[in-house]
Design a protein that fits this description.
Helix 2 links the parallel strand 3 and strand 4 (65-75). The strands form 3 sheets. A 6-stranded mixed β-sheet has the order 2-1-3-4-5-10, with helices on both faces. It has helices at 12-24, 58-63, 83-90, 118-125, 145-152, 166-170, 190-194, 206-213; strands at 2-6, 27-30, 38-47, 65-75, 94-102, 153-157, 176-177, 180-181, 200-204, 221-223. The longest helix has 13 residues, at 12-24. The chain has 224 residues and is α/β, with parallel strands linked by helices. The protein folds into 2 domains: 2-137 and 216-223, Rossmann fold; 145-212, Alpha-Beta Plaits (2-Layer Sandwich), CATH 3.30.70. It is globular, with a radius of gyration of 17 Å. Bound molecules: flavin mononucleotide. Flavin mononucleotide is lined by residues 8-14, 47-51, 74-79, 81, 103-106, 149, 186-189.
Length: 224
């Protein structure tokens, strides 16, 4: 079986995965729905979090049963870090292609939609194993990423909340229980993006606002 599998919080990686699955004619799954399946060829689309893969993806990469794997990371044009190398180390199958795609940052209101370059699709259709090179991360990028994210952005419930519990069911770290957000929260904002009542308000710290105003890193990096 061939598939595109995605992990997505604010929708960028999901949009990339949907487009890729359509172009390839592959099945489309969210990471949680692909557990226990065996694949011939998969493309995995996920966001960069704190210059690596999102922490809930570690167990997914370890358990993945696929012969050929393509790794595609969308990043918020800050720093793509070293996510593909770190993910490739956890995967048992052959990595055959990879890409870092500059996308809209989860914490910014505006940004462009991105697409997987055609050369990645060509490589997926003529697979040979590759080595993903190790890239540099900024110092401390891997140090307590969730705690750092929680310090720069806060999420508050507003009076629009109808206690439907959808946010709790969607949270990739199980951080919302009885409507309360615990320290397991990684500030991925999946709850905020998917709340049908738009009942969750986000407050960015001054440091984060200044950081987001800096010039962006726009590079598409392709491995094939
Ligand atoms: C907790 C968190 C950490 C992030 N860290 C980075 C980062 O280190 N570098 C970067 O360029 N973008 C970073 N981003 C932005 C996302 O990588 C980017 O917006 C991505 O396209 C979001 O994909 P999604 O909509 O599928 O969740 C971060 C976003 C979140 C929520």
């Amino acid at each position: 079986m061939n598939a595109v599998i995605y992990f997505s919080c604010s929708g960028q990686s999901k949009a990339v995965a949907e487009d890729l699955a359509k172009r390839l004619g592959y099945d489309l799954y969210e990471t949680g729905n692909a557990e226990g399946m065996i694949f011939e060829s998969v493309a995995i689309v996920f966001p960069i979090h704190c210059q690596s893969y999102p922490t809930p993806m570690k167990s997914f990469f370890k358990a993945l049963n696929a012969k050929h794997v393509t790794l595609i990371a969308t990043y918020g044009r800050e720093h793509c870090g070293n996510a593909l190398y770190e993910a490739a180390k956890l995967i048992k199958g052959d990595v055959i292609a990879g890409a870092y795609l500059p996308a809209k940052h989860t914490y910014c209101e505006t940004g462009d939609t991105v697409f997987v370059p055609e050369e990645i699709i060509c490589k997926m259709l003529a697979p040979t194993p590759i080595k993903i090179p190790k890239l540099k991360k900024t110092p401390f990028a891997g140090l307590l990423p969730s705690a750092r994210s929680r310090m720069i952005i806060s999420i508050k419930k507003t009076e629009n909340c109808v206690s439907c519990g959808i946010c709790g069911g969607l949270c990739p770290t199980g951080a919302i229980e009885n409507g309360k957000i615990s320290t397991k929260c990684i500030r991925c904002l999946k709850c905020v993006s998917n709340c049908p009542q738009k009942a969750l308000a986000v407050k960015k710290s001054r440091i984060l606002r200044q950081y987001l105003r800096k010039p962006r890193f726009e590079k598409t990096i392709i491995y094939k």
